Amino acid sequence: MKMEELKPNLANSLPLTPLGLLERTATVFGDCPSIIYNNTTYTWSQTHRRCLQLASSISSSGITRGHVVSVVAPNIPATYELHFAVPFAGAILNTINIRLDARTVSVQLQHAESKLVFVDHQSRSLVLEAVSLFPPNTKHPTLVLITEDGGDDGGDSKFSCTYEDMVRKGDPEFKWVRPVSEWDPIVLNYTSGTTSSPKGVVHCHRGIYNMVNEMLIDWSVPKQPVYLWTLPMFHGNGWSLIWGMAAVGGTNVCLRRFDCITMYDMIKQHSVTHMCGAPVVLNMLSNSPDNKPLEKPVHILTAGAPPPAAVLFKTEALGFVVSHGYGLTETAGLVVSCAWKRKWDVLPATDRAKLKARQGVRMGGLTEIDVVEPETGSSVKRDGSKLGEVVMRGGTIMLGYFKDPVASRECLKDDGWFYTGDVAVMHPDGYIEIKDRSKDVIISGGENVSSVEVESVLYTNPAVNEAVVVARPDEYWGETPCAFVSLKPVAALERKPTEKEIIEYCRSKMPHYMAPKTVVFKEELPKTSTGKMQKFVLREIAKSMGSLTFKSTKSNGIQSKVN
C-alpha cells in the first residue's frame, strides 16, 4: 500500500485511558504491596480484584455510562480504589473536598447531578446535612457509607449499604466498561476554593492518560516507589498520581490526617521515597520543632503556589530533594516543571533555591506555553521583569467547565490557547516564574506590585511562619500592599516583632513602593484543605479595614498611616 493509503484501523485506534494501568500492574507486581493504611495492607492483585468487584456493584445499582458518582472521603484505601472502580463502571468520578461546609457540598452535589455518593464515616453528618439542603421534590443521590476497618453502618437507614458490602457482593470477573472515545469524561473536579466561585472542571480519559505519563517521566519516578499521601486525593485526583502509582507498581501509604510527627514517622517506618504537597507542607516540615535530618533522601514535589526560596532552602537542608512545578485543576496536574540543570549544582545554596522557586518550562504533554500581554496577546519580553498572562495548549487541558459555557469561552479562547489567569514573567533562559493571579496584582500609584514577591521577602524574616499579601484601599496610591502574618511560636523567638519592624525589614530588601504599608498579625491564616492561602478572605478583611491616608514624615522617609 502507498503511504497515503495507510489509515487508522481497529487495531490501533482503541481509546487511550489510564484504567488499563491497574490491570497490567496486577500482572507484573501482583504480590507487591499496593496500599498500606494503619494495620491494613493490600497487594496489587487484591486492589485490582476489589476495584472490579466494586465496579460490578456500582453497575448493578443502576449507574451507567455518563452518570456522576461522588466521593467525600480523605486519603484512605476506598478513595484510591474508587478512582478505578467508578470509571470501570463507565461513570464519571467526582471527588469532593472534605473540609467544605454543608452548603457548598450541597451545591456541588446538585450541580454535578450525582447519582451515588460514597461517604466516609467521619463526613456522615456533613453529607446528610448537605442532602437535606436540596430543594423540595428533588431526588436525592443514593448514599453508601465507608466505615473504618470494614465495620457495619449500625442499621443507618440514610445509607443504602456499606462500602465493604459492595466490594463483597461484586463480581471479580466483571468486564469493565471501556470508553467509547478517549474524549469521554472520566472526572469532574471542582476548583479548590481560593476564589469564591468554584467551577466544575471536566477531564477526559485521553487527558488523564497523557498527564500520568508526563508526571512520571518529568519527575523521573522509578518502578515501585513508596509514596506517602500527604497531598489530598480529592485535590486534582492527587495531581493524577493515583493512576501514576498504579503505572509503576508503587506502594501507596495512606494517611487519614497528618502532622509533622506523623509524616516523619511514616517516612522512617515505610522507607518513603516520594511525596507531594503544597508549599505549606514544606513549611510545616522545615519549621516544625520535631523536624530532623532524613536518613535517606525523600523526593518531594511541590506546587499550588510559588514556594518562597527561603522555605525551599530549609527543606532541602533536611535532606528532601525538592522538585517544583506548576499546574491547575484545569490541566489535570503539573504541566510546567523547574527542570534542573547540572551546571546549577555548583551555585551557592541560596542561589539554587531562588532558581528552584521558578516554575520552569513546559512538560512534554504541553504543545506550547507562553507569557503574553493581555491587551495585545503578543509575547512579553524575556527579561524576567515584564508581567503577562500565562497561556498554554496541549493534550492535558480540560474539556471545559461543566454547564458553564460562558466561563469555558472566557479561558478557552478562539485563538486556540487556554488563558490561565496567572501572571508571570519569562526569564531570558525561557523559564517562567509565576508572580501572581491576575486579580492579586496590586496596582500602587500606577506600579504593578507582585504580592508573591513581597511574600517571598517576608518569608526570609526569621520570625515569620506564614505570610500573605493582598491589596488594601489607599486614598493617595489607589491601593497598597497589606501583609497578613503568622509568627513562629513564642519559644522560638527572642521577642515578637512589631508592625513597624516588619515594614522596615521589607523596605531594606526591596523597592519601598513594594513594601507593605500595613501588617496584620494573626495566629493562623485561612487556607483551603490543600494548603492554598485563601486570599479572597483576606482581601475582604483588608477592604473592610478601610482606606489608608498618609502624611509625610521627613525624618525617616516613612509615611505614617492614619485610619
TrEMBL record:
SUPFAM superfamilies, A to Z: Acetyl-CoA synthetase-like
Q: Which InterPro entries match?
A: AMP-bd_C (IPR025110), AMP-bd_C_sf (IPR045851), AMP-binding_CS (IPR020845), AMP-dep_synth/lig_dom (IPR000873), ANL_N_sf (IPR042099)
TM region(s), chain numbering? none
- Please give the superkingdom of this protein's source: Eukaryota
Q: Which residues form the AMP-dependent synthetase/ligase domain?
A: 22-402
Sorted alphabetically, which Pfam families does this protein's record hold? AMP-binding (PF00501), AMP-binding_C (PF13193)
What CDD domains does the record point to? ttLC_FACS_AEE21_like
Query: Which GO MF terms does the UniProt record name?
Result: ligase activity
Secretion signal, residue range per the UniProt entry: none
Q: Which UniProt keywords apply?
A: Ligase
The record places domain AMP-binding enzyme C-terminal at 453-532
The family assignment reads: Belongs to the ATP-dependent AMP-binding enzyme family.
Q: What is this protein called?
A: 4-coumarate--CoA ligase
